[in-house]
Every structure is written in C-alpha cells, then in structure tokens.
Amino acid sequence: MSALQEVTLAALESQAFALMSRLHVILRRHNGRVTDIEYMRLDPAYCRYVLQLASGMDHEDLPQICTKLEQVFFGAEGLFVRIPPKAPLLSNLAAQREATAKSEEAVSMTAQLPAASIPAVSTATAGDAALDKAYIGRLR
After folding, report:
1. Residue 22, Cβ neighbours under 10 Å: how many?
2. What's the rounded Cα separation, in Å, for the pair 94 and 87?
3. Among 3, 75, 92, 81, CA closest to 39
4. How far apart, in whole angstroms, are the C-alpha atoms of residue 59 and residue 134?
5. What is the DSSP string of 14-44?
6. Residue 100 is inside which H or E element, if any?
7. 62-120 pLDDT, tens per residue?
8. How many DSSP H helices and E strands does the chain contain?
9. Which helix (H) or strand (E) holds 66?
10. Which residue of 59, 89, 112, 136 sits 20 to 30 Å from the alpha carbon of 5, by its own alpha carbon?
11. In whole angstroms, what is the distance from residue 65 CA to residue 71 CA?
C-alpha cells in the first residue's frame, strides 16, 4: 500500500469515526439508543443495521449522516469494499478458547514432571526480612 493510499484510508477512517460519533450522540440524546461505534467500524452487518435504524428515525441530520456513512463504508471506494472487514470479536472466541486449552494442557504437563526436573527456587535471605519490614516490601 502506497503512502497516498494510506493517507486516503486514514482520512476515510477519520471521517467515518466523526460521522459515527455524531450518529451515536443523536441516537442517544433523542431516542435513548446506544450504539457501539467500534463494532460498527468492524462489522458490516451491524453497520447496515444501525444505518437502517437511524434512517427510519425522525431527525433533521440523520438522513445526511446515514447517506455519508453508507458512502464511506459501502461506496465504490468504501472502507468495507476496499479492505476486507476485520473478523467480529465473537468469531475470534473459538481461537482464543483453543489457545487457552493448549496453555492449560502445557501447565498440566509441567505439573506432572518429577520434582528433580524442576529447578529449585532460592530461599529467603536475611536481607529479604528487612525488606518485608519496609512499607513497600509489605505491599509486594
């Protein structure tokens, strides 16, 4: 990606963030709706849902904001068209669970090692006793 494309992409993302913030404030103040701007930036389905919801509401600025956001996200050079959207957080949950299971398995294998193969931990010295009496030492 060239420097010019990166600048253009950054400008589009900045414009989208400003418009989504304005949309969020209007929906929150006038209708009590709370939207997730970060998730709207990542998930095209959620973005379309919020835009459809907002376009059906009665406010003077909402149609213009929705039109601009649709152009920024779904236009010919839109963010969702130009760059494939990042996977929603829920789709990453399975990968995180697998990684957690593997790390737990590694910990359980370490627990099964004989005591001779585990390195010994040094014992406390006289200097440590003085450290324990100090205020900061007690906090550790």
Report:
1. 16
2. 12
3. 92
4. 63
5. HHHHHHHHHHHHHHHHHH-----HHHHHH-H
6. helix 93-111
7. 999 999 999 999 988 888 887 665 666 666 777 788 888 887 776 666 666 565 555 55
8. 8, 0
9. helix 62-74
10. 89
11. 10
- For 87, phi then psi, to 5°, come to -65, 140
pTM, full prediction: 0.57
* Sign of CA pseudo-dihedral 29, 33, 34, 40: negative
Residue with tokens 């294998």: 109
Length of the chain: 140
**Residues in CB range of 84: below 8 A, 6 or more apart:** none
Contact 80, 44 (CB under 8 A): yes
Helix axes 3-31, 62-74, angle to 10 degrees: 150
